[in-house]
């Protein structure tokens, strides 16, 4: 990591060298790395194996400031997690998600308009920065009814705070002595201030909505309103519950925004590298959409090849590359007895890049996800598996399809010659170069 390397590539090498089960020590802690499909199925699909508290409780605070707390991602107690999930589920039902298409279209159109101002000028654009603005706008609008239009903001303190928190997560988890070095104290304070800004913003937005509901005002039928309604029905109103609501406010922005932006960036990068895949994806979009601007919910199901492109993107570049579970009882994995009281880690990055499970794994090939292709057996899980599978999986892929389809429909893009295709390891994965493209109108 000090040499700017990708730690996940090291795990792939170790997986190939040591096999599907091997042990790592980190000071006094023991981690069992596993890429055995049967063990993946057994452990991740069962609610009895809880998230590893050694890892996820590190995100409760960030350098002493409450960060993700006991939110949906970090809650290790099954009952605490299940109660929150029950409150959140109605806001992510298929019926509700259908109603978000207008917002997905609106925010994507802003990006198209912005690119329209650039097209023809031969000015290269950093696509990652632009799609990052769009996904952040989408989360703000569909989840909390706030329209900030980050494409028009040059230096947003809120956007900067999200970025700082993402960096802080990596520093805090991977470098246990980071905060002890005086040279890092300024950075640590900036990260703590960023966490405070996010939580204060969340507190303000939530309180404003509660007040509006109490006053009988018309409020947007967004995710926050859905959550507040369900919380009221569940009689969830204590100070502790309010803190958990703020935990999930932070979780939405940290887990639900940059990951989609990174997936879109990698997809754009690979389409730029593979003209034949680009042409096929564009032909499908043109056939389905023609000249119409708004994409309907029914259109999304017709984007067969585009879906394959997005799935293959997540195979090579899983933006949340792994998860871990706590083994509370003795278990046998691949013939090896694993004692109780240790952590088992699962890396989708490792299993999805191994020749054992995917032929020619470094080749970008959307055909792997053709309806007639053999399905990967518990080796492809970019959104995790089982009861703790990502709640926002469908939301994320709907958003990604709308943005990418509109981009293919309206513009031609080509990568700037000589740019790097390396990965930047920031906890999530993003293109190191940001994906720099030339944009022009489709003829």
From TrEMBL:
Subcellular location(s) per record: Cell projection, Dendrite; Endoplasmic reticulum membrane; Microsome membrane; Postsynapse
Q: Which GO terms describe its molecular function?
A: cholesterol 24-hydroxylase activity; heme binding; iron ion binding
* Keywords assigned by UniProt, alphabetized: Cell projection, Cholesterol metabolism, Endoplasmic reticulum, Heme, Iron, Lipid metabolism, Membrane, Metal-binding, Microsome, Monooxygenase, Oxidoreductase, Steroid metabolism, Sterol metabolism, Synapse, Transmembrane, Transmembrane helix
Give the family from UniProt: Belongs to the cytochrome P450 family.
Q: Please list the GO biological process terms of this entry.
A: cholesterol catabolic process
Q: Which domain of life is it from?
A: Eukaryota
Mode of membrane association: Single-pass membrane protein
Summarize the protein's role.
P450 monooxygenase that plays a major role in cholesterol homeostasis in the brain. By promoting constant cholesterol elimination in neurons, may activate the mevalonate pathway and coordinate the synthesis of new cholesterol and nonsterol isoprenoids involved in synaptic activity and learning.
- Return any one Pfam family short name: p450
Specify the protein name: Cholesterol 24-hydroxylase
Under PANTHER family, the record lists: CYP46A1 PROTEIN-RELATED, CYTOCHROME P450 FAMILY 46 SUBFAMILY A
Q: In which pathway does it act?
A: Steroid metabolism; cholesterol degradation; Lipid metabolism; C21-steroid hormone metabolism
Q: Which cofactors, by name?
A: heme
